[in-house]
Design a protein that fits this description.
Shape: globular
Number of strands: 36
Largest sheet: 8 strands, parallel, barrel
Distance between the termini: 59 Å
Strand order of the largest sheet: 9-10-17-18-19-20-21-22
Oligomer: single chain
CATH superfamily of the largest domain: Glycosidases
Structural class: alpha/beta
CATH class of the largest domain: Alpha Beta
Number of domains: 4
Strand content: 25-35%
Length: 752
């Protein structure tokens, strides 16, 4: 969006030209998300304990919150005046949506397009205030700003773990600080129903509670449970209270009532609306369950009655109906569902899902609401006016936008905050995956595949916080921040600064604000990041950090000899790990930041193929950030599984070539696989190792694979090695992911 050169903007630009800009006075902008324009000028505007303004000029809601924030952060109160105000306002017309400007000279002048823009200006102004030696001041500057995207969302799953009204309010306060404007409230799922519905009281008396919850990760074998009752729900009065609280912060709430799948909690309360009618429990384990809503007319009446109460509680435009991960097995064996298919001339169960979604959309449209759902609602044909929330990558969103449907991008690659955000083993348990701060910062909701007209259907983006492994509010904050701030940058900024500049403001200024508010944010992004590069002697480890001036104390110890080397390393400096002359050795390397004092430790295996070249004839799935060095960089994949340390293949045959630096007698090759059947990750069926001459010569084949570690005796002098890994063509029936091609995850291949 270009700045409209209306009379009003010309005025604000004229005000800006009154300042004497000098290069030496241009300091970093402490406002996050970063504004469109920030120009620092000479001098500071000093503040007293009372700030004078004309209260009648301000919306009551914004004024009250402004006063509260000034008092909380800076011990400043507001004094009403009928004279010249210290903070002066001017409302503008014909400017970009939610436009505001702030001019700080001998007084503060705020121009704004609407009340919401004034609220954003207020948040920015509070961030500009500094206190040094008990002296409060604002650097003289000119700010001009407006958002890039209309939908700047943050999701919260309260079904897997319940959070109180006060915790939800704190969540909303932090969103408001960083100008996030959409709260996606995931109120129902298999593990709990969280909203009072007067027509169906058993939804909360039965569906809101489970008798036990999984301990540890879903993939653990054997699984353990805490045998403790967990649950809770929000009364309709509490929902109204939260909706009002959010509205005062210019945050729209999008409630999600899951259907047709992820409905076990509802069906535990009212089993007559399932296909089988069988009584079931609210599960305390995660995953996808076969039981979904039956497509009989009674189910549609049940859901319509629920949605009728939901609609009355939420004044916003959208109602989210889920639509994701809905197995079709019950529908295939259900006579009533098959009758619905036949009666409506549908082809299969996928078209039945489309029929289901369309029925619900028609009801919501009659109530003046728009339907939004996860990208699975595209399957079988998208209902006419539905909005798509694309979570399985960008593909679903691209397809929807090209067909003229509005889209919210929320790909798992960039926007799933239940993923790990650090490589340290000190990170709390998470579902898996790897979404560090920098990855979130790089998020762009508009794919290159869309032209300008198609891109106009992208409303914005959102991050999702699923809480299977998040039991407390402290843990919730740890997973959400500072990644939510990086998200605000991605969705607000017209032209965001480079990542290093962002981190400088984040660490120097906003971490202190979060400390003051007692937010349990993650500091994982401040740990040393290690990048492996091929070196002629082995591997070079390169230190990476958002702060280029960082220095790390490095401790390097060889376990066999006990020799320990200590040195200081700068960002960008290389540490060379050479291949062993004889025996494979294990080492541990520790990096400690001299600034943050945070440490990172890596465990390292020096073996004979360290830094060798890998040619992936079968390409790995790109979502796991594989590099050419990952299989032979000396670092084994961590457990619990973190996606960034493993190469993932979603093919039934994997072929790769490894070129050793020199011909060498290899005694043994060890393969490290991952078995996590609940995530559709399986051990392979067969490994075949071959050498290349004029034709490939088989050296060793194994088919008896029952362990994650597979060791093959070789005893050959080799230079080029071909490896072929064969898996199931599809996952057998009765196992998680049945019918799909299994994932194969592989990490360090060690040559002895």
């Amino acid at each position: 969006m270009n700045i409209f050169l209306s009379k009003a903007i010309v005025l604000t630009l004229f005000i800006a030209t009154l300042f004497d800009y000098s290069a030496q006075e241009r300091e970093q902008c402490d406002i996050l998300p970063t504004p469109v324009v920030y120009k620092r000028v000479k001098g500071n505007l000093y503040l007293r304990e009372k700030v004078h303004l004309n209260k009648e000029d301000w919306p009551t809601n914004t004024l009250n919150q402004f006063e509260s924030l000034l008092q909380t952060f800076h011990k400043i109160t507001i004094q009403d005046t009928t004279g010249k105000a210290f903070i002066r306002l001017r409302k503008l017309k014909n400017v970009p949506k939610d436009f505001y400007s702030i001019s700080v000279s001998n007084f503060i002048f705020i121009s704004y397009s609407n009340d919401r823009a004034l609220y954003y200006a207020m948040q920015s102004l509070v961030q500009l205030i500094k206190t040094e030696n008990k002296v409060k001041y604002i650097p003289k500057a000119f700010v001009q700003d407006y958002p890039k995207f209309d939908w700047r969302g943050l999701h919260l799953d309260v079904s897997r773990h319940f959070f109180s009204v006060e915790e939800i309010k704190k969540y909303l306060d932090l969103m408001a600080m960083y100008k996030l404007n959409t709260f996606h409230w995931h109120l129902t799922d298999d593990q709990g129903w969280r909203i009072e519905i007067n027509t169906y009281p058993k939804l909360t008396s039965i569906g809101a509670f489970r008798d036990s919850t999984l301990i540890g990760h879903y993939t653990a074998n054997p699984r353990q449970y805490d045998n403790k009752r967990h649950g809770g729900f929000y009364t309709q009065q509490e929902v109204k209270e939260i909706v009002s609280y959010a509205a005062k912060r210019y945050i729209d709430i999008v409630p999600e009532i899951e259907m047709p799948g992820h409905s076990r909690a509802a069906l535990a309360a009212y089993p007559e609306f399932s296909c089988t009618g069988e009584q079931q429990m609210v599960p305390g384990i995660w995953g996808v369950f076969e039981d979904v809503y039956c497509t009989k007319e009674e189910s549609f009446q049940f859901l319509s009655n629920i949605l009728n109460e939901v609609v009355s509680l939420f004044p916003g435009k959208y109602i989210h109906i889920g639509g994701d991960e809905a197995p079709k097995s019950r529908w295939k064996s259900c006579a009533k569902c098959q009758n619905t298919i036949k009666k409506n001339g549908l082809t299969d169960e996928y078209e039945l899902q489309s029929y289901f979604i369309t029925r619900i959309e028609q009801f919501l449209n009659q109530k003046g609401k728009n339907l939004i759902g996860w990208d699975e609602i595209l399957e079988g044909g998208l209902s006419p006016n539905a909005t798509v929330m694309s979570w399985r990558g960008f593909k679903g969103g691209i397809a929807a936008a090209k067909n003229g449907h509005y889209v919210v991008m929320t790909p798992g690659s960039h926007c799933y905050f239940d993923h790990y955000q650090g490589k340290s083993n000190e990170e709390p348990l998470a579902i898996g995956g790897y979404t560090p701060l920098k990855k979130v910062y790089q998020f762009n909701p508009i794919p290159d595949e869309l032209d300008a007209a198609q891109a106009s259907y992208i409303l914005g983006g959102q991050a999702n916080l699923w809480t299977e492994y998040i039991k407390s509010y402290d843990h919730l904050e740890y997973m959400a921040y500072p990644r939510a701030i990086a998200l605000s940058q991605a969705l607000w900024c017209q032209n965001k600064p480079n990542y290093e500049k962002f981190c400088r403001v984040l660490y120097d200024t906003h971490f202190k604000k979060l400390d003051f508010l007692k937010v349990n944010y993650s500091k994982s992004s401040q740990r040393a990041s290690i990048k492996s590069k091929i070196n002629e002697k082995g591997i070079s480890l390169v230190l990476e950090s958002p702060d280029s001036s960082e220095v790390f104390q490095t401790s390097f110890q060889t376990k066999f000899s006990g020799e320990e080397i200590k040195r200081n390393m700068k960002v960008g400096e290389e540490l060379i790990i050479t291949r062993p002359k004889k025996h494979v050795t294990e080492q541990e390397i520790k990096f400690i930041s001299t600034k943050s004092k945070l440490s990172s430790t890596i465990h390292f295996t020096r073996h004979h193929a360290l830094g060798a070249k890998v040619n992936y004839i079968t390409k790995p799935n790109p979502q796991y950030n594989y590099t050419s060095t990952l299989l032979l960089d000396g670092q084994k994949g961590a457990r619990p599984w973190r996606g960034h340390e493993w190469i993932g293949f979603d093919t039934c045959k994997i072929i790769m070539e490894i070129k050793l630096p020199e011909k060498k007698k290899i005694q043994e090759i060890a393969f490290s696989f991952l078995e996590s059947n609940g995530s559709w990750i399986y051990l392979p069926k067969q490994i075949q190792v071959s050498s290349q001459k004029k034709r490939r010569k088989k050296i060793r084949t194994t088919t008896n694979i029952h362990s994650e570690l597979v060791r093959l005796k070789i005893k050959k002098r080799l230079k080029n090695i071909y490896i072929q890994i064969n898996t199931f063509s599809s996952i057998p029936q009765g196992l998680p992911g049945a019918g799909h091609v299994p994932w194969t995850f592989l990490d360090e291949i060690i040559f002895y």
